[in-house]
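Severity: low
Component: inverse-folding endpoint
Summary: output formatting inconsistent between runs
Steps to reproduce: submit the following structure tokens with default settings.
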């Protein structure tokens, strides 16, 4: 079974990711290494490397592999960075980040998801991830600034609190919108924040605690 998953993962990287233009060798290596099947519910493991998002419970999904790769590449990580992730979800995107970055701080509002994600990530041996259960919309201010921020659910507008936690030269990738969503890249430059719309997407909404 593991050899079947390995073959499926290699095909995923070649046909879904490299073929669509992702070129960053660190991203390609991370996607080739992280076992996506370890982050999906047991009944869906045979679909783990399909070109689609999958449900993970609690009304949430694990993103399509290409979107994970695209968003990670957009952060421009070179290794050693301090990264904030809003929305741990399944833990798969977290694992991809942890393969490249120095340390990852990840926040998940839904406790059962956070618990399962941490178990999956611990099972893969990651020691460079910091976890928090709670509202990610305000970020992790006591650990700011961050070199990169990634938001894995759609915010109704660009989250100012997260922009504020970007360090010099930092980059944030975030889906923005409700019915119509766009993936937005924010860069902190010497002249201030620059924002660029990259492509249309569809994510579950970013939920705030009441």
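Observed output (run 2 of 3):
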């Amino acid at each position: 079974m593991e050899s079947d998953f390995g073959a499926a993962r290699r095909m995923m990287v070649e046909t879904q990711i490299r073929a669509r233009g992702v070129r960053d060798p660190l991203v390609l290596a991370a996607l080739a290494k992280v076992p996506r099947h370890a982050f999906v519910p047991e009944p869906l493991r045979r679909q783990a490397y399909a070109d689609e998002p999958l449900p993970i419970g609690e009304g949430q999904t694990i993103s399509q592999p290409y979107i994970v790769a695209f968003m990670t590449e957009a952060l421009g990580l070179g290794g050693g960075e301090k990264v904030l992730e809003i929305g741990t979800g399944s833990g798969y995107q977290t694992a991809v980040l942890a393969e490249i970055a120095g340390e990852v701080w990840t926040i998940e509002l839904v406790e059962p998801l956070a618990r399962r994600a941490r178990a999956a990530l611990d099972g893969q041996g990651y020691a460079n991830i910091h976890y928090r259960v709670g509202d990610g919309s305000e970020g992790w201010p006591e650990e700011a600034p961050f070199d990169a921020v990634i938001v894995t659910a759609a915010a109704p507008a660009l989250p100012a609190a997260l922009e504020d936690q970007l360090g010099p030269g930092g980059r944030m990738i975030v889906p923005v919108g409700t019915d119509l969503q766009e993936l937005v890249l924010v860069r902190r430059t010497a002249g201030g924040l620059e924002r660029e719309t990259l492509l249309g997407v569809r994510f579950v909404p970013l939920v705030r605690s009441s």
